[in-house]
Amino acid sequence: MSEISDKVVSAIGARIQAERIRRGWSIAELAARSGVSKAMVSAIERGANSPTATLLVRIAASFDLTLSALIARAELGAGGLLKSEDQPVWQDPETGYVRRHLSPPSDMPLELIRVELPAGARVAFPARAYAFNRHQIWLLSGALDFTEGPVIHHMAPGDCLTLGAPQDCVYHAPGPDPGIYLVAVLRSGA
Predict the structure, then answer these.
(1) Are 75 and 11 within 8 A, CB to CB?
(2) Which domains does the chain have, with CATH numbers?
(3) Is pLDDT of 76 > 60?
(4) How many whole angstroms separate alpha carbon 88 and alpha carbon 101?
(5) Cα–Cα distance for residue pair 121/113, rounded to 1 Å
(6) Which one of 7, 58, 99, 145 is separated from 125 by 20 to 30 angstroms, measured CA to CA?
(7) End-to-end Cα distance, the chain
(8) 49-53 — which CB contacts under 8 Å span 24+ positions?
(9) CA dist., res. 86 & res. 67, Å (int)
């Protein structure tokens, strides 16, 4: 996969700014709520910085959105069919993990995301990233060690895991191949 495009970076930044303005928040207020510095929030909104997954999760959570919903709002238009070539693809500049938003835009509370985590890579998400939704992870290929609080789930292809109560989590692809998995997200209250 290629690096995240300038178009995607700009779309994500514009969506974050729109979400912030819709709520009547200043950059300082978004920074305080998300724990992301004002300078970084400003750079992301201007499209001057390709944010990491960790930063985007923190910002999305401050809006009571999932990372998927934030990126989908940035990239998707209306319609019931989302062709493969139109599915938003985002690459984390820090870990190289690639996420593809599979779900067409709709008012359904279900989102499907395909993730490719490079061998050896780790991605951590705080408990608050899981506070407003339920997750299932289905490993398609490779191996995945998923840490959920104090428990490590060693997953093989075909294994499916339902996450419990929100806890800090870590995705790790131990190798030698990338971990490729599907995440099904059910948004609460939707």
Answers:
(1) yes
(2) 6-73 (1.10.260.40), 80-187 (2.60.120.10)
(3) no
(4) 6
(5) 18
(6) 7
(7) 33
(8) 49/9, 50/3, 50/4, 50/9, 50/93, 51/9, 51/12, 51/93, 52/92, 52/93, 52/94, 52/95, 53/92, 53/94, 53/95, 53/97, 53/99, 53/123, 53/125
(9) 18
**d(C-alpha 152, C-alpha 168), whole Å:** 12
CB 172 within 8 Å of CB 121? yes
Q: How far apart are CA 112 and CA 21, in angstroms?
A: 28
Determine the Cα–Cα distance for residues 98 and 4; give it in Å rounded to an integer: 9
CB 60 within 8 A of CB 66: yes
Are the beta carbons of 163 and 134 closer than 8 angstroms? yes
Of the candidates 104, 42, 44, which has an alpha carbon nearest to the alpha carbon of residue 72? 104
The count of other CB atoms within 10 Å of the CB of residue 54 is 18
For 128-167, the pLDDT digits (tens) are 888 878 999 999 999 999 999 999 999 999 999 999 999 9
What order of strands is seen across the sheet that includes strand 151-155? 122-125, 169-172, 144-148, 151-155
Q: Which two tokens stand for residue 22?
A: 């819709």
Q: Taking each helix axis from N to C terminus, what angle separates 27-34 and 6-22, rounded to the nearest 10 degrees?
A: 100
